[in-house]
Amino acid sequence: MIRTYPSPKRVSVREGGFSLIELLIVVAIILIVAAIAIPNLMRAKIAANQAAAVENVRTITSAAAAYSSTYGNGYPPTFATMGGTLPATCDGAMLLDEVLTTAPNTKSGYGYTYIPQGAQLAFLPAGCGAAGYNGYLTAAAPMVVGRTGQSSYCSDEPGVIRVDVTGGLVATPAACAALTPLQ
Question: For the whole prediction, is pTM greater than 0.70?
Fold first, then answer.
């Protein structure tokens, strides 16, 4: 008796890789996730920049008060005066980060200004290159409103930080005083 065996069936072997449809589905899923995540990421970045701006305005306000009490020269004559290198002097007090006190005075998506206000002091303490002032205004404004921040902030010698929800640069103490205090 002769035994017969069934003939081997052809088994199709699939080549490695993905089909075009599979790749398109994966790309579509990635795009959907990105569309959901990117706006949230931008809002988180803006919130972080705004929190950093408030803290930097608070730090500048504290540095101006510390300068005034340490050197007896009123409030600093320039923004750069609150920066500097060792040893700390009246002309380079080392009270602030060099990133803030060096032009273009930007940090974390905000631009910072420090403007001496009022009369310049009539006396010049020993060791000081320039007389201080009896007031100042500091402000922080977003570099690009809606992208790096929404609101701008300001403060002057009373030390109250105020907010402008339009994001415009506050240029005068009167304009700052007219804004809502930050709570």
Answer: yes
